[in-house]
Amino acid sequence: MSTQEQSATAATPETRSPDVVVVGAGTAGCYAAATVAREGYDAVVLERKSADEAGHIACGDALKGADAFPESIPKSQIEPAFTNTDVDHGRFEIPQEDTVLEIPVPGELAVIDRWEYGKRIIEGADEAGAELHYDTVVQDVTQADDGRVTGVTAIRKGQPLEYEADIVIDAAGSLSVLQDNVDFSGSTFDTNVNYTHFCSAYREIVTVEEPVEWSDALVFKPTERAAGYLWYFPRTETEINAGLGFQMTEEPMELVEDLKRDLENRAEFDGAQVDDKLGAALPTRRPYDSAVHPGYMAVGDAAGHVNPTTGGGIAGAAYAGKYAADQAIEALETGDCGEATLWRYNQRVMDHFGARYAALDVYNILSTAVDVDDLMSLLAAMPGDKLAEALYSGSTDIGTKLKVEALLKSRGHWGTIWNLYRTKRRADELLAHYENYPSHPGALDSWQDRRDDLMEQVYETTGAEPKY
Questions:
Q1: How many C-alpha atoms does 265 have within 13 Å on its Cβ side?
Q2: Is 64 helix (H, G, I), strand (E, B) or coil?
Q3: CB burial class (10 A; 0-12, 13-18, 19+) of residue 56?
Q4: Nearest-CA neighbor of 465 among 281, 196, 254?
Q5: Which of 33, 329, 335, 432 has CA 20 to 30 A from 369's CA?
Q6: What's the whole-model pTM score?
Q7: For residues 342 and 333, what is the distance between their CA atoms, to the nearest angstrom?
């Protein structure tokens, strides 16, 4: 036991009793706290980083859905962090085919300074009336005899702390430590989660001498192995977020070398300066089937609220925070913090983006079972607008004309194309099922049974090993 832990054990815990405790001052946590505080309730945000470091998070910095954010933190509060609003498409580089796909991106898109954005959402939560407690490391969760979560224990600079609350909102990020400590046996909370459902991400902020010609695009490129992809997202014409994402089953340093080599081989990065390096984990899986338990809700990365094909999750996390806060407010007003009261949060997430993300995960599953060269040939044959539709909606209409064109352009890879068409039908079926997400927790079991039947068909169609 460390000296700090020994002194903390000996010290008398300091107790606080807010209405809502939010763990984590990221996007979901700040929007949740701001929403609760604006209704006049006490919301405390526990952040493990210092006040100076809070908001410094590894991110690709690309923000899809920049036009739509909850009003609890006004958009005007965060807009100064939008450093590039001229981005309107993606450039997908396919070295195997000597091809660059220009992919239109629907909706408003921006590249942001993530640290500046992080500071501004924290300021927004503070201005809404939430209380921020920095340097606070949550260690455990407290539960009543009936299983309801009643608060958390933490430590701040050697001082043990106890937070008693009606609702705990878990915004602690991927593989949240809180979920290791809650006994979920009496609820529907999704515990079918393991590290293979997550990826590691690493990024550098790189300043170049001359403006890049692709400053209006997000640049993607597969790594040398099928395990991940590289990205180059221009914050400005000369400041680039360069990074990569890869499944946690892969060796990180080997893949980081892919990024290093690619940077060295790009003429625009000659003489470049690296200003910041940071890594993180993020989910590349379907959203949690249920992210509620009596007295407890998980939001953002802690509930799988990320587009599993692109890694984008900022706007979804903001709305997840708001939806969870709305149910927390209802629980406070009615005095009922049970699962049925909180359930509406699950419904709103699935209706807004969860169903789409679950369908998109089918294509991640497909990618584990096909040859990377075949897959790249297939992507090179697809029109950019159809690829964009698939990436962001979870489905796309592939007509006869497109089928013929793709077959002609991808001679030699027809088996993969046929596999994609069959997989697309499975994704459509899954999307339709998620759009009928149950209205109460008692119906979740039967809904899951049908979903699992559909997933068996996905594995059969793709030839992939089961993911869940």
A1: 6
A2: strand
A3: middle
A4: 196
A5: 432
A6: 0.91
A7: 12
Contacts of 243 (CB under 8 A, 6+ apart): 58, 60, 201, 202, 203, 204, 230, 231, 233, 259
Q: Specify whether the CB–CB gap between 281 and 134 falls below 8 A.
A: no
Q: What is the DSSP string of 78-103?
A: HGGGEEE----EEEEEEGGGTEEEEE
| 335-375 confidence digits (pLDDT tens) | 999 999 999 999 999 999 999 999 999 998 998 887 666 66
Compute the distance between CA of residue 324 and CA of residue 322 in angstroms, rounded to an integer. Answer: 5
Which tokens sit at 73?
Answer: 């933190």
Tokens of 180: 């290791």
d(CA 428, CA 287): 17
Looking at residue 242, what is its pLDDT?
97
State the pLDDT at residue 184: 98
Where helices occur in 266-370 by DSSP H, the ranges are: 314-334, 339-349, 355-367
How many degrees, rounded to 5, is the angle at CA 51 between CA 49 and CA 56? 60
- Single out the residue of 435, 461, 248, 255 nearest to residue 358, CA to CA: 435
137 beta partners:
155
CA distances from 214 to 236, 284, 313, 381, 403 (A): 10, 27, 23, 22, 30
Question: How far are the Cα atoms of 36, 60, 97, 152, 258 from residue 311, in angstroms, in the given order?
Answer: 28, 8, 24, 30, 19
Instruction: Find out whether 27 and 172 touch, Cβ atoms under 8 Å.
Output: no
How distant, in Å, are the alpha carbons of 61, 62, 134, 161, 210 from that of 234?
9, 9, 31, 42, 13
For 121-133, what is each residue's pLDDT tens digit?
999 999 999 999 9
Q: Give the strands of the sheet with 273-283, arranged side by side.
A: 99-104, 89-94, 217-222, 228-234, 239-247, 198-207, 273-283
> pLDDT tens across 414-433, in order?
566 677 788 999 999 999 99
When computed from its CA atoms, the radius of gyration of the chain, rounded to whole angstroms, is 23
Write out the H or E segment, with its range, that includes residue 449.
helix 444-462
